[in-house]
Amino acid sequence: MKKPDFHAFYQNLWSDRWASLESALKRDASWVAVIICPDGTDSAEGARQLSQVQAASIACWKLRSDLTDEIYVLPHNSIKAEDLANLTVYFLDPASVVVALCLVFAASPPLDDGGPRRYLIDLCAAPGGKSILLRSYLNSVWRMVFNERSDSRRGRLKRNLENFFKADQFSVTGHDSRQWCLHEKGVADAILLDAPCSSEKHVLENSKEFQKWSVSRSSRIQTDQWSMLASSLQVVKPGGLVMYSTCSVHEGENDQLVERALTSKKLKCEVVGGIEELLNQVRVDSKAVSYLKHPTELIEKTKFGYQILPDRTGVGPIYFSLIRRTT
Residue 136: which of 72, 62, 71, 189 has the closest Cα? Predict the structure, then answer.
């Protein structure tokens, strides 16, 4: 039997939109610099450089974190390397920032409500961009575990976290996310599951990956994704949140997988609405950068979640759905 054609397969999924989406996926990513600025920046030089970054930036998402840090999200090409020497910076796609922010805004308890520490797990955490935002934004009420099964990717994750935080502020593990529920159930308040996926942008950029692509490979990925999602919904407490996300444009890895969870007889869950209201907590200081518009202008509603796609926003792709365990 002839191997299905990649382009024909996605043309069938996306119809007339595929041509523009494929073209956008082939373009270079639009990165942003995430700068974490603790209150009382250590040095006068650091404070001066931060002031320069703020003045030079042509767009900015400004956040106030529960750790009393200020977090800036800036287009990477709006600042010079020499302006960052005394500041801690991580570069990532702004679509990834949106996903992390949705989870922290939805999960954040009062600063000190007298209750026990919250527990968050980032199940597929490497290379660590979303992890850095989670740890930066959520306060000491939270115990956080950042997990990555791959040895090499886990080492990179740990190095990236160590650039920002002290060792006692996080824990890194190497467990199989598909089987986490065999060891813990009903214990976590929130989980980020940024699941391994078909990553069509990477496939289009890498000839070796393109040659390896097949419908059956995507089916195997979906099997793993389902195991991870089903496990996650058992690990969180009733009322706990799972943020499921991928960088795939294949609905079988996105909405269809979430729908499977919603209709499962064993998993009792619901999709959390009000994402736009959550994202309204972000303040935008912007002159004109299309891909750093307010986050609510980047997201596109799907049946069970949201997507941010490069043909309409210049960033992404990413799909996400915030799911709450009900019982």
Answer: 71
20-37 pLDDT, tens per residue? Answer: 999 999 999 888 877 766
Q: In this structure, are residues 193 and 167 in contact, taking their beta carbons and an 8 Å threshold?
A: no
CATH 3.40.1010.20 fits 93-325, yes or no: no
Amino acid at 110: P
Residue with tokens 């070796």: 208
Domain boundaries defined on the chain: 93-325
Helices (H), the chain: 6-14, 18-26, 44-56, 94-107, 129-137, 151-164, 200-205, 207-212, 215-235, 255-263, 275-279, 310-313
d(CA 136, CA 122): 14
Cβ atoms within 10 Å of 192's Cβ, excluding its own = 29
Cα-based distances in Å from 21 to 14, 15, 24, 129, 311 = 9, 10, 5, 25, 5
Torsion of CA 140, 102, 255, 175, to 10 degrees: -20
3 state DSSP class of 284: strand
What's the full length of the chain, in residues?
A: 327
Question: What are 100-159's pLDDT values in tens digits?
Answer: 999 989 997 654 455 678 999 999 999 999 999 999 888 778 999 999 999 999 999 999
Ramachandran region of residue 239, left (φ > 0), alpha (ψ -120 to 50) or beta? left
Asked if residue 39 has pLDDT above 70, the reply is no
> 244-286 pLDDT, tens per residue?
999 999 999 999 999 999 999 999 999 999 999 999 888 776 5
Q: Please, are residues 233 and 197 in contact by the beta-carbon 8 Å criterion? A: no
Q: Give the C-alpha separation, 80 to 257, whole Å.
A: 42
161 phi and psi angles, rounded to 5 deg: -65, -40
Q: What is the mean pLDDT of the chain?
A: 86
